[in-house]
Amino acid sequence: MNRVLCFPRALAGTARLVLVAAVALLTPALASAEPASRDLVRLENEKPGAADWQLTYVRIDKGEAGFRCCGIEGYCSRQSVAAGEPIEFFVSAEPECQFTIEIFRMGYYGGKGARLMQTLGPLAGKPQAVPPAGARRIRECRWEPSARLVIPADWPSGVYLGRLSRVPNPDGTMPWQSYVVFIVRDDRPADILFQCPDNTWQAYNRWPDSYSLYIDPESEHASCNNTVDVSFDRPYGKYVQIYQNPQSVGSGEFLCFEFPLCYWLEQHGYDVSYCSNSDMLTPDRAAKCKAFISVGHDEYWDVRQYESVQKIAQSGVCVLFLSGNAVCWVSPFRDGFDGRPNRIISRKAPYQGLTMGPKPLTPEFVKATYEFVGPDEGLLVGARNILPVNGGGDWVCAKPEHWIFAGTGMKKGDRIRGLVGWEFHGDPAPIPGLEVVAEGIALHGGTEPVPYQATIYPTVNGGFVFNASTIFWSFGLSAPPGHMPVWSHNTRPHGPDERVQQITHNLLRHAIDR
User: Fold this and answer.
1) Distance between CA 369 and CA 222 in Å, rounded?
2) Residues 393 and 488 in one domain
3) Pairing between strand 344-346 and 229-231?
4) Which domain holds residue 183?
């Protein structure tokens, strides 16, 4: 039995610390108890899904001009956690209230998209201080924990959303809601490892008010300089980069870009495990799998991630970049204020694509701004992050005889409408055996033509590296509940497409069945 700790508002600071420590009596769950069967995900998705897991009562401060939900908001003590390990939830509620945390695992679940794993509370909620901007504009919360939970042994690896809901007061106060998000990881030899790009979620997170890596009022080059740090010790605000998505508040970019792939993989019973960017600082986890997937918007990589994925590719693990703008900025981790590892990132340098492409950053700007330039991401991805890196367009078949197109019926020049966006890759790297399987033009700003290329190249032992060259690839796989369609530069993806689904099946089967 798992116990959840509720912190009374009247509890003094010292006593609270003692009580937090006392939660160690939570029943330990050993990671080794997790089943290693390839049927784990299929069996998990046969369990009943939750009809009610989305946010219903959402109030964003300042309306469309705001980013946060003061009524109820929170964050987690870790990006990822294994069975048997504790995770803490830090929650602020204004005004004071009772609240609950409903924890959902995201997947297929008969089309419902999530399963309720546990409900914590009611818990005591109170306002917690918004930290002042520190050095390099960092906003690093030092909130008191509201609850602590040891992850049970039978919770499978996955992306988990905790829905924070105010308990309605008799005076009719609305039960405002938001999410917290974390990943449960495991160490089993799964067929597929799904990397959640939470570095990028945090890089674009504006909580509490325009404090992302992209905003520095004192710099004219804030969008690509090295003057700001961001911390995982703060809530995720509303996603606002290319469209308004108030139902995303607290969930990073997962519901925007990555969830359709998670839903589709689990719908089809693929043996998949999940990790965060911070779990890829060594190659050990991915080396146990047959395929590694970078999905959605996976822009910010510590160099150690690059080296890890390079090593697994060289060992024969298949690598699928079902993403765009991946491996664009070097974002080293450092410890948080209390010594917890991997809680702060910065934009340290560009990977070489931004300095080698058709419209590179100027040498003068790079030299004046960065201590170094990262390795050439094209030598890993297959193509580079050229500038301008964003736009929208059709995904156009260039090599229909390639095995990835088997069963699609596609001919050279056939188009999958609107699939290219929000960002993409171009300028293929000089890799032996590399083939361009799709290419065309994306329109930056709806008017400026920019070339993109989707690529594939062989590695060893029948392995390969595939680059879909679009953030929107997962939109061609499924349209799960809780996912909002998007537009990009006056174009839009059209949703699930049998050809995208078949290409993805071909890639995964080729990777798994070797």
Assistant:
1) 11
2) yes
3) antiparallel
4) 13-258
- Strand, coil or helix: what is 300? strand
Given a contact cutoff of 8 angstroms between Cβ atoms, the answer to whether 249 and 179 are in contact is yes
In a domain, 357, yes or no: yes
And the tokens for 268?
A: 């089809």
pLDDT tens digit string along 262-288?
A: 999 999 999 999 999 999 999 999 999
Question: What's the pLDDT tens digit per position in 106-129?
Answer: 999 999 999 999 999 999 999 999
**Cis bond before residue 208 (omega within 30° of 0):** yes
Q: Which of 223, 258, 293 is the last residue of a domain?
A: 258
Kindly report the pTM of this predicted structure: 0.92
The distance from CA 504 to its chain's CA centroid, rounded to whole angstroms, is 19
Cis amide bond preceding 170, omega within 30:
no
Among all chains, which residue has been given the structure tokens 């079902």? Answer: 322
Residue 154: its pLDDT value, please?
Answer: 96
Question: What integer is the mean pLDDT of 389-418?
Answer: 97
The CA distance from 78 to 92, in Å, is 17
**Residue in this structure with the two tokens 């939109």, named with its chain if needed:** 475
331-346 residue pLDDT tens: 999 999 999 999 999 9
CA angle 132, 65, 445 (to 5 degrees): 115
DSSP 421-477: -SB--BS----TT-EEEEEEEEEETTTEEEEEEEEEEE-STT-EEEE---GGGGGGT
Residue 5, in any domain of the structure = no
- Phi, psi (deg, nearest 5) at residue 181: -135, 140
For the purposes of burial, counting CB atoms within 10 Å of the CB of 355, is it exposed (0-12), middle (13-18) or buried (19 or more)?
A: buried
Inform me whether the pLDDT recorded for 474 exceeds 70: yes
> How big is the CA angle at 4 (ends 141 and 98), to the nearest 5 degrees?
65
Residues 244 and 288 in one domain: no
Predicted pLDDT at 9: 33
* Percent of the chain whose pLDDT exceeds 90: 80
Write down the residue that tokens 């029943």 correspond to: 27
For the chain, the residue count is 514
What's the one-letter identity of residue 480?
A: P
Residues 196 and 329 grouped into a single domain: no
User: Could you tell me if 186 and 290 lie in one domain?
Assistant: no
Residues 6 or more apart whose Cβ sits within 8 Å of residue 322? 261, 293, 294, 295, 296, 466, 468, 473, 474, 504
Q: Is the separation of the CB atoms in 29 and 150 below 8 Å?
A: yes
CA atoms within 13 A on the CB side of 428: 20
